[in-house]
Amino acid sequence: MSTEADAVARPRVVLGVSGGIAAYKACEVLRRLTESGHDVTVVPTAAALEFVGAPTWAALSGKPVSSEVWADVHQVPHVRLGQEADLVLVAPATADLMAKAAHGLADDLLTNTLLTARCPVVLAPAMHTEMWEHAATQANVATLRDRGVVVLEPASGRLTGKDTGKGRLPDPLEIVETALGVLAHARRHEGGLSQDLAGRKVVVSAGGTREYLDPVRFLGNRSSGLQGVALARAAVTRGAEVTLVAANVALPDPAGVHVVRVETTAELRTEVLAAAAHADAVVMAAAPADFRPAAHSDSKIKKGDDGSAPPLELVQNPDILAELSRERALPGQVVVGFAAETGDATGSVLDHARAKLARKGCDLLVVNDVSQGKVFGSPDNEAVVLGSDGTTTSVPLGSKSVLAHVIWDRVASRWLSTASGTPR
């Protein structure tokens, strides 16, 4: 049985729903928020209620639902909701809703809440391509982003009717993960949402490469790509233009991220180097294979007549992290590597990591202890971030989103040091 103290401790989220066909997808957003322990108040517009009725929102949230400022006037909901919220998330956000928010119009409960909110605000747009691309909408989006509002990029795909194009609501899972990342980051910064990556171009790699022996078999590793996706998502919320080079990642594309999909280490190297040519930072969270088969068979390799395994000759793959560190594409470019280490008779996890940092020449190295399969596929992570300047930042076990923001904090700090003339 929950107590009053438990209710107070739960993060308070206002889920705004505006009047688009994608309103039904907000039911999944609401479910994920409530199941993750958040206190959610749904505030639909009158148009949204034409798509999904108030009883549905009330049943899913466990709270009464209203779209009017005239309900429960004695509680002053048009001011109180925005004042008390830890996060306001609008999904879907129509062109009309964003126009009102950008110009400070407040003609219903949701727009009043947006005008009074002093917490982070996340908008997930959904509309037809022509509406998204219209100069007025783009100007409104720019205005909102300048004010610190996180406006996700809509996805591309099937819209209403036979239309396809950019304007589809991002995947509900991505909306929730992004929103919760924004909330966690804001709490770490005492309510503020940093846009310290605005105007920056960053590249993130994620996942694990595959090196094929034949059409059926490959050498691979256990990297899921969760940390790389969390890094990409966090960078978007902080204002960056993000390219994610994803190696065999079976996850939805992060909202607002340009995703390039690859399989092998050679493909990863080609795409990362191409994107890095214009990037302010490159974070190599992917796990490239160190070796590949010396030869690839065009047909499935068979067992020997006696059941013996054929010999397997391996050759070394290019060291992408060392190459990026050695040949910086731009002055002041920050390069971040990852090290999945285990201790052994020759040294501890950090001993091996410090040697790797010196050998690779990157600016930051994120060290994971992967003894007994830790980290891989888990939603949580703990790490130590080593800096080439001798700094050490320990990150206790928590969500991969939290670690992602710590990494970007350290990257932003490196940019400031470079700008001020402090040695790297």
UniProtKB/TrEMBL annotation:
| Residues annotated for CTP binding in this entry | D290, K300, P318, D319, I320, L321, F338, K356, K360
Q: Where is this region: Phosphopantothenoylcysteine decarboxylase?
A: 1-201
- Requisite cofactors: Mg(2+); FMN
Q: Which residues form the DNA/pantothenate metabolism flavoprotein C-terminal domain?
A: 197-413
Q: Which Pfam families match?
A: DFP, Flavoprotein
Enzyme Commission number(s) of this protein = 4.1.1.36, 6.3.2.5
Domain Flavoprotein residues, every copy: 12-180
Q: Is Metal-binding one of the keywords?
A: yes
Key words of the record: Decarboxylase, Flavoprotein, FMN, Ligase, Lyase, Magnesium, Metal-binding, Multifunctional enzyme
Enumerate the residue ranges of region (Phosphopantothenate--cysteine ligase).
202-424
One GO MF annotation is:
phosphopantothenoylcysteine decarboxylase activity
**UniProt catalytic activity:** N-[(R)-4-phosphopantothenoyl]-L-cysteine + H(+) = (R)-4'-phosphopantetheine + CO2; (R)-4'-phosphopantothenate + L-cysteine + CTP = N-[(R)-4-phosphopantothenoyl]-L-cysteine + CMP + diphosphate + H(+)
Cofactor stoichiometry and binding remark: Binds 1 FMN per subunit.
**What does the function comment of this entry state?**
Catalyzes two sequential steps in the biosynthesis of coenzyme A. In the first step cysteine is conjugated to 4'-phosphopantothenate to form 4-phosphopantothenoylcysteine. In the second step the latter compound is decarboxylated to form 4'-phosphopantotheine. Catalyzes two steps in the biosynthesis of coenzyme A. In the first step cysteine is conjugated to 4'-phosphopantothenate to form 4-phosphopantothenoylcysteine, in the latter compound is decarboxylated to form 4'-phosphopantotheine.
PANTHER family membership? HOMO-OLIGOMERIC FLAVIN CONTAINING CYS DECARBOXYLASE FAMILY, PHOSPHOPANTOTHENOYLCYSTEINE DECARBOXYLASE
Q: Which family does it belong to?
A: In the C-terminal section; belongs to the PPC synthetase family. In the N-terminal section; belongs to the HFCD (homo-oligomeric flavin containing Cys decarboxylase) superfamily.
The protein's name in its UniProt record: Coenzyme A biosynthesis bifunctional protein CoaBC
Q: Which organism is it from?
A: Nocardioides marmoribigeumensis
